[in-house]
Design goal:
alpha/beta; Aminopeptidase; Glucose Oxidase, domain 1; 3 domains; 4-stranded antiparallel sheet; 16 strands; elongated
Length: 431
């Protein structure tokens, strides 16, 4: 696929080196690069300290350089060599310290000795560096406790800064909407950062070419957690009126088994469409997780009171693959073949969701069927059957159930259910 090749290479060669975070120039730069590909992407700005539900938008964080120099004048840790070396949201530092003090600010993974961990401290002021465990062992051998080190972190935390996110809308014939959400807030990691945006760009490219799109698609590129909270705080009322479903995309680019986290009650149109997509693509060994195993922005969309049924589509589930949140999450893990597979699932699920007919009852309480000619005026055994089918249909036409689900619920084949739907629609009982 040409689009996969194009956006995969864009991510690998242009986006991967950028140091992104919840806020700051790196995230804004990423959004502007995506906007170059899709000029109708709108970049939104929310000021730091703005209240969004129970949260506040954090200060804008920017970083220009960070390093540690030993007694010989050698840079032993260098942010510019790998941006994962720095603890995310580190405060500015310019000081000398001994080995013991420095080690209190050093993070590593014993079980993955060649991996640089990804660490952050968004809401508590601290500083730190990340190294491999092998580097830590060399450090212990080479330096004594009394040795001094120069620590420089050229960062800035601006309480009058901004949080940015991107939004792109592809208008359909209907005002009903499907939301596709991914995040742009992690530094140089491929699966747990760039695979979602790659897949989203491929989806945008594909659906922009679809003529007579039945429903409207809304794509968002947000900082994880605080971004979805901010987006919902601004749009929840509107989304509750228009949204029929959607998907969050994360860790969708490796070649391992497909997986997903279903919505809170696992019974939404989005859940059904995703299950149908796996079946249609003959993916039999996918791993599904309940909402108890949520991990990304599906948490926010499905939370009580928000109640937007958005499952998470992934390949390796976040937090459950060995490269997760480390420097090993690179483009050796994320491949074009992996992206093609993840994209296929998302595209198929969205296409199925686009085709769903979702009847909604227009009459409060039980309608009077006789005046519409839908009630047999002679009460006689078995004469009530068709009227009963009409009434059964209306009981489940709540704007949440598809024709397929209603058909299954009232125990009629889909062909008969469609005839009932058309009859009720003709009589202005449903939309």
């Amino acid at each position: 696929m040409k689009s996969v090749n194009k956006y995969y290479n864009l991510a690998k060669n242009v986006l991967f080196p950028i140091c992104r975070s919840l806020t700051g120039k790196g995230t804004l730069k990423t959004l502007k690069i995506i906007k170059k590909e899709f000029p109708d992407l709108k970049i939104h700005t929310i000021r730091s300290q703005t209240k969004v539900f129970d949260w506040k938008i954090p200060s804008e964080w920017n970083i220009s350089d960070a390093y540690v120099i030993d007694k010989f004048g050698t840079k032993i840790i260098d942010f510019k060599k790998n941006n994962l070396h720095l603890l995310g949201y580190s405060i500015p530092v310019n000081k000398k310290c001994n080995k013991k003090e420095l080690l209190n600010h050093i993070y590593y993974l014993k079980k993955q000795p060649n991996a640089i961990p990804y660490t952050t401290s968004y809401y508590n002021k601290r500083w730190g560096f990340n190294i491999t465990y092998n580097q830590k062992k060399q450090f212990d051998k080479k330096y004594k406790n009394k040795d001094k080190f120069k620590v420089i972190i050229k960062s800035e935390l601006n309480s009058n800064g901004n949080l940015n996110y991107g939004e792109l809308i592809i208008k359909g014939k209907s005002n009903e909407e499907i939301l596709i959400s991914t995040y742009v807030c992690h530094p140089s990691m491929a699966n747990d950062q760039l695979s979602g945006p790659i897949a989203s760009m491929c989806l945008i490219n594909y659906f922009k070419s679809v003529k007579k799109l039945k429903k409207t698609l809304r794509f968002i590129f947000i900082p994880e957690t605080i971004g979805s909270i901010a987006f919902l705080s601004k749009n929840l009322k509107y989304l509750k009126k228009r949204l029929i479903g959607g998907y969050a995309l994360s860790c969708i680019g490796d070649e391992r088994n497909h997986s997903c986290v279903f919505s809170r009650f696992e019974n939404s149109l989005s859940d059904d469409s995703l299950k149908e997509a796996y079946k249609k693509l003959n993916i039999k060994n996918y791993k599904s997780y309940s909402f108890l195993h949520r991990g990304s922005d599906e948490r926010q969309y499905n939370s009580p009171g928000v109640d937007l049924p958005i499952p998470l589509i992934c390949r390796s589930k976040p937090n459950l693959y060995k490269e997760y949140h480390t420097s090993l999450d690179d483009f050796n893990l994320v491949t074009q073949k992996g992206i093609v597979g993840g994209f296929a699932v998302a595209k198929t699920a969205i296409n199925i969701l686009l085709e769903k007919t979702i009847p909604k009852n227009l009459v409060l309480c039980e309608p009077q069927m006789g005046k519409r000619g839908l009630y047999n005026t002679l009460s006689m055994k078995r004469k009530f059957d068709i009227t009963r089918s009409y009434m059964d249909f209306l009981q489940y036409a709540d704007g949440k159930n598809s024709l397929e689900k209603i058909s299954e619920k009232i125990n009629l084949n889909l062909k008969v259910t469609k005839k009932i739907y058309n009859k009720l629609k003709k009589n202005n009982l449903i939309i």
